[in-house]
Write a structure and sequence with these properties.
This protein has 480 residues and is an alpha+beta fold. The protein folds into three domains: 3-102, Rossmann fold, CATH 3.40.50.20; 131-200, ATP-grasp fold, A domain (Dna Ligase, domain 1, 2-Layer Sandwich); 206-447, D-amino Acid Aminotransferase, Chain A, domain 1. The chain contains 16 helices and 22 strands. It has helices spanning 10-22, 39-43, 62-71, 88-96, 106-113, 115-122, 140-150, 176-191, 248-264, 296-303, 307-315, 395-408, 418-426, 428-432, 439-443, 446-473; strands at residues 3-6, 26-32, 46-51, 76-78, 100-101, 154-158, 168-170, 196-200, 206-214, 220-227, 231-232, 235-236, 238-241, 269-277, 283-289, 332-339, 341-342, 348-349, 356-358, 365-369, 384-392, 410-412. The strands form seven sheets. A five-stranded parallel sheet has the order 3-2-1-4-5. The protein has a four-stranded antiparallel sheet with strand order 10-9-14-15, with helices on both faces. Helix 4 runs antiparallel to helix 5 and helix 12 packs antiparallel against helix 13. It starts with a strand and ends in a 7-residue tail after the last helix. The chain binds ligand MV4. The site of ligand MV4 has 17 residues, from strand 8, strand 14 and strand 15.
Length: 480
């Protein structure tokens, strides 16, 4: 593998290129017209403009991207996350053109893209699943019967959904019919597939996911868990590894289950198996993400493993060089996603001109970044600017480093999730490790960060006043 094309932009494109360069592999960037001066374009060895700003005219143009790859003699395509990363047809098309897709085979992508097909695939592997049905349901009477059996509240999910899209909680039988009809019509219009199914609603779960890696020789390992319970409206904001609540026994059990899920779909490359963990520490398989995830760095820090390097190696057909027994968790890592969003204004995108952009540096601080000072943030794409990651010997140390790093991150021109992150890391519930997926809903109000910001403004004003008074005291030589 001499040259790879990265079918993505922003921090993840740069992240992948960094490892490629380290391995002596040349890189090709693709970009849209608004991204012509973007850092990922400068970072690559070669770069090709593939279209206009909207993603469906650029970063989502699979055939065009493959055409560019062939013209430039590219050996492999890395899709990053988002865009074409979980598009089974794209993966297949890449392979058909004798280019390596750095990721699983299209069949695994397809199976895991459908929640019902995923349940079907893992059925024979003894994986714990939330009580419910594993087939599409349209008959309301049948749904009522099943719901009564498993007990309310229940959750209606869309088979083609994922990441929380198309879910509806039903508290009582009288609401079932209307909610089901709504879920079906919503799923039909959103995904072109109206299949829905029913599960017991787990009221206060933690979201724990396991990183897996598989080679083409039948070896699958897991690289422990990431805790991703701090999210708002299914958008993750803070992630960490390891989780503050898993015992070594539970970790081993969940790891084994994740490996079985990967084996069930003949997996290749990096993947993530999502679980819910209830208050009694029962875990249930939810879904598998067939890509490198945004939050992969926390796993890299606690294992000392470069996941992109492993992805490239197994894509080249190499055997996994690490075995399960070799892996050990060392230290604790935290990640905060820095979005150009306004936490004071319902997290609305706050795109614009990056007037000041200074990144914190230091031991135990890693910033995976895709932006630079003086840039306009395009409105066309995900507004994530960077990921701030800290690593310490203990969770407490990683938290303290994170708070310091947030204070030293200087962004002016747009609003960001930095103050929101500070609120999370300073919160008692987070510090104690005692939180679930309702953390943000339960604890966050705009007033909290508003008063924190006001307090900071007050301190700044007082310091300025003090300096002014000091300046007034200095002896002045009268001008002659
Ligand atoms: C659930 C659940 C409770 N019970 N399933 C949301 C994302 C998608 N992957 C599945 N999700 C959930 N499925 C049952 N049976 C609660 C959630 C859920 C959730 C899961 C992970 C992270 C954040 C979440 C926030 C709300 C609900």
């Amino acid at each position: 593998m001499k040259k790879i094309l990265i079918a993505n932009r922003g921090e993840i494109a740069i992240r992948v290129m960094t490892t490629a360069h380290k391995m002596g592999i040349k890189t090709v960037a693709i970009y849209s017209t608004v991204d012509r001066n973007a850092p990922h374009v400068k970072f690559a060895n070669e770069a090709v403009c593939i279209g206009e700003a909207p993603s469906n005219q650029s970063y989502l143009l699979g055939s065009k991207i493959i055409e560019v790859a062939k013209q430039l003699d590219v050996d492999a395509i890395h899709p990053g996350y988002g865009f074409l990363s979980e598009n089974a047809d794209f993966a297949e098309e890449v392979e058909k053109n004798d280019i390596i897709f750095i990721g699983p085979k299209s069949k695994a992508i397809k199976v895991m893209g459908s929640k019902l097909a995923a349940k079907e695939a893992v059925k024979a592997y003894d994986i714990p699943m939330v009580p419910g049905i594993d087939e599409a349901i349209t008959d309301v009477d049948k749904a009522k019967k099943i719901a009564t059996e498993i007990g309310f509240p229940i959750l209606i999910k869309a088979s083609a959904g994922g990441g929380g899209k198309g879910m509806r909680v039903v508290e009582e039988e009288k609401d079932l019919e209307s909610q089901m009809n709504r879920a079906i019509s919503e799923a039909t219009s959103a995904f072109g597939d109206g299949s829905v199914f029913i599960e017991k609603y787990v009221a206060s779960p933690r979201h724990i996911e396991i990183q897996v890696m598989a080679d083409s020789h039948g070896n699958v390992i897991h690289l422990f868990e990431r805790e991703c319970s701090v999210q708002r409206r299914h958008q993750k904001v803070v992630e960490e590894a390891p989780s503050a609540v898993l015992s070594p026994e539970l970790r081993a059990k969940m790891g084994e289950a994740a490996v079985k899920v990967a084996k069930a779909c003949d997996y290749l490359g990096a993947g993530t198996v999502e679980f819910l963990l209830d208050e009694n520490h029962n875990f249930y398989f939810l879904e598998m993400n067939t890509r490198l995830q945004v939050e992969h760095p926390v796993t890299e820090l606690i294992t000392g493993i470069d996941l992109v390097e492993l992805q490239i190696k197994v894509a080249r057909g190499e055997k996994l060089s690490v075995q399960q027994e070799d892996l050990k968790i060392k230290g604790h890592a935290l990640e905060l996603r820095i979005y150009a969003e306004d936490p004071m204004n319902d997290f609305l995108p706050s795109v614009g001109y990056l007037e000041t952009y200074k990144i914190p540096v230091g031991k135990g601080i890693r910033v995976d970044n895709g932006f630079e000072e003086g840039m306009d943030i395009p409105i066309y794409y995900d507004p994530m600017l960077a990921k701030l990651i800290t690593y310490g010997a203990t969770r407490e140390e990683a938290i303290q480093l994170m708070i310091k790093a947030i204070n030293n991150y200087d962004i002016k021109g747009v609003q960001t999730t930095l103050p929101f992150g500070k609120f999370v890391f300073e919160h008692e519930a987070f510090k104690s490790g005692n939180f679930d997926t309702h953390f943000v809903k339960k604890h966050f109000t705009t007033e909290i960060i508003q008063s924190a910001t006001k307090e900071e403004a007050k301190i700044a004003a007082l310091l300025a006043m003090k300096q002014y008074i000091e300046d007034q005291k200095t002896v002045r030589i009268p001008t002659l």
